[in-house]
Design goal:
The chain is an alpha/beta fold. The chain has four domains: 137 residues, 3-Layer(aba) Sandwich (Rossmann fold); 75 residues; 117 residues, Rossmann fold; 75 residues, Helicase, Ruva Protein, domain 3, CATH 1.10.8. Helix content is 51%, strand content 13%. A seven-stranded mixed sheet has the order 9-11-12-13-10-14-15, sandwiched between helices. Strands 3-2-4-5-1-6 form a six-stranded mixed sheet, sandwiched between helices. A two-stranded parallel ribbon has the order 7-8. Helix 1 packs across helix 2, helix 18 crosses helix 19 and helix 18 packs across helix 20. The radius of gyration is 29 Å and the shape is elongated. The chain binds adenosine-5'-triphosphate and magnesium ion (MG).
Length: 491
């Protein structure tokens, strides 16, 4: 609040008469403005459509008829003192009302000292063009980590008092994570979330984190271009990719520490279809215990025609507000393909993305995946864009054993009952997705024949499948050839 007050002082010193504050947190806006009024020895009056114009100077009562915007604004205009007037939700009345717009403009343009200042407050506020240039926009600062910690402590104390002095259970690491994940929220929202985490069970635990992230995402209203993926994977569910896993493990601490200079930026996963790229992207969030956001290129292009880059910029800003987080850009070639058909939109989208990747300071770890390298713009591949470019190849024999084990166990077919080495031999050239498919189709076959799933049913399923690596063998070897020189092998 201290910095907010200082900034507001500057605005007043500059004799700006019209201030716009966008915020959901009306209480905090009022608190801040009240402190400001006290500091400067000014009167503060508040207007809303329901309560009219009220203020300390009027003994808390509504001035006659002042719930009408016109009358309220005339009172402000006629005020001979340097009062602060806070108007909630006035902007909706300003649309198509030339008289009201004029009154606001009169107040905004009043010259000389000793004039009132009008402060418009709403959660989202668009001024008519006539007023734009007279208004100073101001936003309340978001709480710092110290303030967030204080908020969580206060809520814990409050719960304690309501529960016969029982203490809220938590541990330091979880508390730190919660505080980090509350970043980007307003004071009021952070408090609300902290309260709901504590209230259900009197504890703040690791299990609260996914719920917290989801609630935060909804509060920030990021739905649409950016999707929240509740379903993060565990690396235990990903066979192979040993290099990739080790690379990530080595960078987790640096990412969490969040010091801007050597913050890991992200990685690009290239590879064959069904080789587990998307799965690995999800597992990064699982491994690091971070929220996973997905940038949906399709809705980026479709949603608001002609506003593609602005949408992207907004989505990226929102990802920063959700930080620390993992931002997953799946099938990036579809979003950034270099085409002449779109009037350069994809080129500009690429530019926006690259600029952001170079300049962002917030801990947002980008995981991009692609499988058609021919359509990837070369700028994206240049050194330094991503920390590393990994090639995800078809799984080697030993990895195929792991993948069979993972998918058999997932379906409660104990992997010990199978000869995994033989299955791995029989699935040469299969992708992880195709291996999973074979297990699933063996399961269906067993159901149909009313037998239990055995080795031979899986082998049968494998033999019925022509893997993509055979169908597309030329493409695949070209891809491997290309990747050998430019990428690191993921596994
Ligand atoms: N290495 C792996 N370990 C375990 N499961 C795997 C592996 N690779 C693929 N799978 C299984 O196959 C499914 C599909 O894989 P995924 O969607 O991650 O592949 P992809 O590389 O993203 O393919 P595409 O290029 O078609 O998008 C996964 O959800 C998972 O169940
Ligand atoms: Mg995929």
């Amino acid at each position: 609040m201290k910095n907010d007050l200082k900034d507001l002082q500057l605005v007043l010193d500059a004799r700006v008469r019209l201030i716009v504050i966008e915020s959901w947190d009306e209480l905090r806006v009022l608190e801040t403005l009240t402190s400001l009024a006290v500091q400067r020895g000014m009167n503060l009056r508040v207007w809303s459509i329901s309560e009219g114009l009220q203020g300390m100077a009027f003994g808390g009562e509504m001035l006659e008829g002042s719930n009408l915007p016109e009358r309220a604004l005339r009172l402000v205009k006629a005020d001979p003192q340097t009062g602060l007037y806070v108007f909630f939700d006035l902007h909706s009345f300003l649309e198509n009302d030339a008289l009201l717009v004029r009154l606001v403009k009169d107040i905004a343009m009043a010259a000389g000292p000793g004039k009132p200042t009008l402060i418009l407050v709403s959660h989202a506020l668009k001024l008519p063009a006539e007023l734009q240039r007279y208004a100073a926009r101001f936003s309340l600062s978001l709480p710092s980590e110290d303030e967030l910690l204080a908020i969580v402590r206060e809520e814990a104390l409050r719960w304690s008092e309501g529960n016969r002095g029982l203490r809220v259970r938590t541990d330091n690491r979880t508390l730190q994570q919660v505080v980090k994940n509350l970043r980007g929220l307003s004071h009021a929202d952070a408090r609300l979330l902290a309260r709901s985490l504590i209230c259900d069970d009197g504890a703040i635990t690791q299990e609260d984190l996914p719920e917290l992230n989801k609630a935060k995402f909804q509060l920030l209203d990021l739905d649409g271009v950016l999707g929240y993926e509740a379903d993060t994977a565990r690396f235990a569910d990903v066979g192979g990719l040993h290099n990739l896993k080790q690379w990530l493990a080595e960078r987790q601490a640096a990412f969490m520490a969040g010091t801007a200079s050597d913050l890991p930026k992200g990685m690009l996963l290239l590879g064959a279809q069904g080789s587990g790229k998307s799965l690995a992207a999800k597992a990064v969030a699982g491994l690091w215990g971070l929220p996973l956001l997905r940038l949906d290129f399709a809705s980026l292009y479709n949603k608001y025609f002609g506003e593609t880059e602005r949408n992207l910029r907004e989505a990226l800003l929102m990802a920063e507000r959700m930080s620390p987080c993992v931002l997953w850009m799946d099938e990036i070639e579809k979003g950034l393909a270099t085409g002449d058909m779109d009037n350069g939109v994809s080129q500009r989208v690429l530019g926006t993305l690259l600029t952001w990747m170079a300049e962002r300071k917030a801990p947002v770890f980008v995981v991009a995946t692609a499988n058609i390298i021919k359509r990837l713009p070369p700028e994206l591949m240049r050194k330094g864009r991503f920390d590393e470019i990994f090639f995800v190849d078809l799984p080697a024999t030993a990895v195929r054993e792991d993948i069979f084990r993972i998918h058999l166990n997932k379906r409660e077919l104990s992997a010990e009952n199978f000869d995994l080495a033989a299955l791995a031999m029989a699935s040469d050239g299969f992708s992880g997705a195709e291996i999973e498919q074979a297990v699933v189709s063996a399961l269906y076959a067993a159901q149909a024949r009313q037998v239990s799933v055995g080795q031979e049913l899986i082998v049968e399923a494998l033999q019925r499948t022509v893997p993509l690596s055979v169908v597309m063998s030329e493409e695949l070897s070209a891809l491997r050839h290309w990747a050998a020189e430019r990428t690191v092998h993921a596994g």
